Amino acid sequence: MTLARRETYGPALVVAVFLIAGLCASAFLVAPSLSVPSDVDYDPTRLVLYYSTLPRLATAVLVGAALALAGALFQQVLRNPLADPTTLGVSAGANLALVLASLFLPGLLGANRDLVALAGSGIAAAIVVSLGARRGFSPYSLVLSGLVLGLWCGGLSAILTYLNQRYLASLFIWGSGSLSQQSWAIPVFLLWKIAAVAIVCGLITRPLSILDLGDNSSSALGVRAGRLRFIAIACAVALAAFVTSAVGVISFIGLVAPTLSRLAGARRPGQLIFWSPLIGASLLFCTDAVLQLVAGGLGDFLPTGAVTAIFGSPLLLALLPRLKIRHRIQQSSAWNRPRPFGVTTSITVAAVSLCLILAISILVGRSIDGNLSILRGDLASELLAIRMPKVLAALAAGAMLAVAGSILQRLTGNEMSSPEVLGISAGATFGVAIGLFAVAPRLFGQFTFAIAGAIAVLAVIFLSSRRSGFSPERVLLAGIALSAMVDAVVGVLSSTGDPRAALLMRWMSGSTYLVDSSSALAEVGIGAVLISIAFATRRWLDILPLGPSPSSAVGISLARSRFVLFALAGLMTGAATLTVGPLSFVGLMGPHLAREAGLARALPQMIGAAFIGGALMVAADFLGRTLVSPYQIPAGLVSAMIGAPFLMFMMRKKA
Fold this sequence. Notes:
Helices cover 76% and strands 1% of the residues. It has 26 helices and two strands.
């Protein structure tokens, strides 16, 4: 087949395959209604067909087309084959804005739900695009920052939903991407909004083609590149916001459809923008029709967005080799800043601060009358026996996350890297979910399943990165992709309505409520061993950030050393996640604060980061126990709330 014929018939063939499969599945769904006599006016089966099944299939077509068009626009403007509303955090930002509005400003939803979603997605897009502009729109930086922001927004939305189950019980399934409909209202509203944006996209298709010539050539032809990029990104953000406002987060359609368009032969921007919506519409139509057919009565309760994430994440892993990444040599300005204090002084201050926070956390708490008081009296020993294990577990978890963060940041040369994005926390969460839903183990059994899940995800990451010599950037991106897939599986399990889903959400929020003396001692012992091993790798961590050539010159095996260090970081992350949940961002804050204190060498930085990370997590646990007593805010949620502004600050800095 010639190139011209492939460009013409290839995408059409893909559309036909998905459309025929979807129509076949839809035929089985519609068949029971067709057997009803025509003179029966109020048959429930026919009413379900007219007001639920058909509107849902129409919504799938519109949503698939909108997300695919948004993905094609993002990929064309940012020149990034991995860009879409999911990987750039746009959909997650809109979802978080809707959750926050539902909790604190419900009047906004009644006034204009789309404006709330537009605000959330616009803020998320502005953060990611501004970071990309500062770093030359590096594909790695864009995808990493977008997925990290998406993970945080998605995690915070889930935790807020859990903490407010009485008000947001139905929002959890919707937030995972539910196409379930009870009328034609949503597809009608989506139709004219998507059509309006599509008209604008049609008008800018030819100028977008000119952008491929470069900014200088485009300007010479009368195209204002900056304004054109803004219009295209605004259209993509609007499409993602409209979809999220209507049906929740549908993952990876914006990545899959343009990719299939290219593989089928679409090369020029006009072809990509034309065929991607058609492929996206037929793909989501087929996926949802098959889901309803297979799930039967549970079809309305299984979020379609989680299902699309399950097959979209492996595609992201498969596309990683196509992402061109060069190892960045560590910049002296970022890692060897002037020291405000000496190394000994900085470590001493960090150690003293940790001891002070430990003393306050152990000895201070809320009394019966609700006031803060020092631990004393007849109940002192009983309260100490309850409080001490939680404090020690938080200390060990925070220290392990901070040391793991130091390893990752030195390996990648990226101050945004943290254990939370490695994917190991998601693996531990997956293990606990399987344990709870399969055998309902006790606490020790949950720990066992969590460790097994963390090791399984770590093994998959290593296997997928082995051919690249365990390239740090590819390891991190593989971890993020697996995190998205695991979160989708957990979302499907939680959407079943099983009461054990509440236990899973409590564990994910990072509460130390269930920690006892035995589990605390185990956490401290594991932390002491793993951190000691990390200290022994200080020579590798001092030399590897300089680049492959200097490391090889002194006899360090890149593949072996990276394997050991990533494995060590993964084990520490998995062990810490057992106590404080998968979303704390202590692994981001601890190493950075240690570096700001002038601790540039590997060993001093890890020691300082361990003290700072432990102090941050203990402080978060203390605040969670005392701020809204007698209620307890999980320590992981408190630290995540602190880490969010910190993450935004880090993302705004130049590389």
